[in-house]
Design goal:
single chain, 166 residues, alpha/beta, Nucleotidyltransferase, domain 5, five-stranded mixed beta sheet, 5 helices, globular
């Protein structure tokens, strides 16, 4: 099964593609859709088209996207929500299921701590997927969403919490 992870953002939207087969997670691709400064509607269109292109190229069966985290800056949260909506609309042609995960849920699945920072997520993604180098932070977050989804869906067998303990 192919899973596309998306980390939405109005300036940078990360994406990560994994193939999942039994207990194996195989890295396929990742990257960042960078939008040009200027008109916000044009940025949303860039995100939409960028995700459409990725979906057409990699043909995911399921899509995992990070939910909006609302902090003190309401304007930023609204823009992030719009970027997220543009990304989701870009997946429609895939006829794939779209699954949403909270940032803390994704970090917990990948790092083991919901309060993990971006560097920790990058390092764990590098190790889990046996990559030679770290990927960009936004791409790592998108790959983390895909890994979280694979674990939550039971695609690879997740070890019991106390595995290996006597």
């Amino acid at each position: 099964m192919r899973v596309l992870g998306i980390d939405p953002g109005s300036q940078r939207t990360g994406f990560g593609v994994l193939d999942v087969s039994g207990p194996k997670l195989a890295y396929v691709a990742s990257g960042v859709i960078r939008t040009a400064e200027g008109d916000f509607a044009a940025r949303l269109c860039e995100i939409f088209r960028g995700v459409q292109t990725i979906v057409a190229e990699y043909r995911p069966q399921e899509i995992a996207i990070e939910r909006v985290f609302v902090n003190r800056n309401v304007d930023s949260a609204l823009k992030l929500g719009q970027a997220r909506g543009a990304a989701i609309c870009g997946t429609v042609d895939a006829s794939a299921g779209v699954f949403e995960y909270a940032p803390r849920q994704i970090k917990m699945a990948v790092v083991g701590s919901g309060g993990a920072d971006k560097a920790q997520v990058q390092m764990m993604i590098k190790n889990l997927l046996k990559l030679r180098e770290r990927v960009a932070a936004d791409a790592a977050d998108a790959l983390a969403a895909a890994v979280c989804h694979a674990l939550r869906r039971g695609l690879p067998a997740a070890p019991p919490r106390n595995a290996g303990r006597a």
